[in-house]
Amino acid sequence: MDRSERGMNRILKPTLIGVLATPVAMSLAWFSAGFGHGNYVWARVLFPYSLLLTNVTGSLTTPLIVLAVVQFPLYGVVCGVCAKKMPCLAVATLAHAVAVGATFFGAVSMLA
Fold first, then answer.
1. Which of 24, 37, 79, 104 has the most Cβ atoms closer than 10 angstroms to its Cβ?
2. What per-residue string of b and e applies to 60-82 under the rule 16 or more CB within 10 Å gives b?
3. Where are the domains of the chain?
4. What SS3 string covers 48-74?
5. Angle CA(95)–CA(84)–CA(17) in degrees, nearest 5?
6. Which of 54-58, 82-86, 96-100 has the lowest mean pLDDT?
7. For 7-52, what is each residue's pLDDT tens digit?
8. Do the Cβ atoms of 19 and 76 come closer than 8 Å?
9. Helices (DSSP H) in 1-112: which residue ranges?
10. Considering the entire predicted model, what is its pTM?
């Protein structure tokens, strides 16, 4: 296996994990939303960027749903690219954690 194939494998495996995790995460978020009458806990934890952007759009729009669908595969790409660069993974994790915190502390008016 040459260097480019190893690099591609390093990105492909975590991206595939992200693709496989997406339906599970979407299901958890959907059920916690309770058809608009739930608590949105899993939606807040798993898809904070889409929820935070509802402040801009006014509701959960198709582009925000697309963002939610590609979020975990993108995390896989980031993990693959940054596999040997811990600060990059730490920054991505911290950004997600800050976004989750923002959804729980009043930054999402749609869910109030």
1. 79
2. beeebeeebbebbbebbebbbeb
3. 3-111
4. HHHHHHHHHHCCCCHHHHHHHHHHHHH
5. 65
6. 82-86
7. 678 889 999 999 999 999 999 999 998 877 888 899 999 999 999 9
8. yes
9. 3-33, 41-46, 48-57, 62-81, 86-104
10. 0.85
